[in-house]
Amino acid sequence: MINIVLPVDFGDKTEQLVDGAVKFAKQLNGRIFLIHVAPSDIGFAIGDMGYQYFPEVEANEIREELVQLNKIEQRIIAHDVDCEHLLKQGIAKDTILEYARAKNADYIVMGSHGRSGIYDVFIGSLTKGLTKDSHVPVLVLPIHD
User: Fold this and answer.
1) Are the C-beta atoms of 81 and 31 separated by less than 8 Å?
2) May I ask which residue range the UniProt record assigns to the signal sequence (predicted)?
3) What is the DSSP-derived secondary structure letter of residue 139?
4) Whole domain around residue 26: which residue ranges?
5) Which end of the chain is more exposed for a tag (fewer CB within 10 A), N or C?
């Protein structure tokens, strides 16, 4: 069976990315290892007193992201594709590559969102970093409006 790592960010194009990854997995008799990487500083805010940490904010955000990840996993399974998921805090590129190695991935599937501004710079750099440092092929699916 082919192992496919699918990083998701819960953006407005995630549904299209998941559809493309499911189609790809079905063609290859693959299973999907879904991953969402939350930033390590999710509970920090800056205010009058400098940086402050709010653990309840972090816990709530992680809880909400886990609910979203579970929904995506169930959607993939409903298409008769094996799936499991991981939500982990860290640096996106390093965490995704570590997960791909741990799952003996044959592919990493990413989406090209075609956006502009800072979001495009971030996603572009993540995709570039993954394609540069990955030990397996990175399939970039075109995601359009």
Assistant:
1) yes
2) none
3) E
4) 2-142
5) C
- How many domains in the chain? 1
Tokens 């063609």 locate to 27
Provide the 10 A C-beta neighbour count for residue 96: 28
Residue type for position 75:
R
Residue 48 token pair? 């009058």
How would you label 59-85 residue by residue, b for 16+ Cβ within 10 Å and e otherwise? eeebeebeeebeebbeebeeeebebeb
pTM to 2 decimal places: 0.84
The domain that contains 20 carries what CATH number? Answer: 3.40.50.620
Residue 33: its H or E element: strand 30-38
Strands (E), 39-137: 44-47, 50-53, 83-89, 107-112
The tokens for 84 are: 């499991």
Q: What digits encode the pLDDT tens for the residues 74-91?
A: 999 999 999 999 999 899
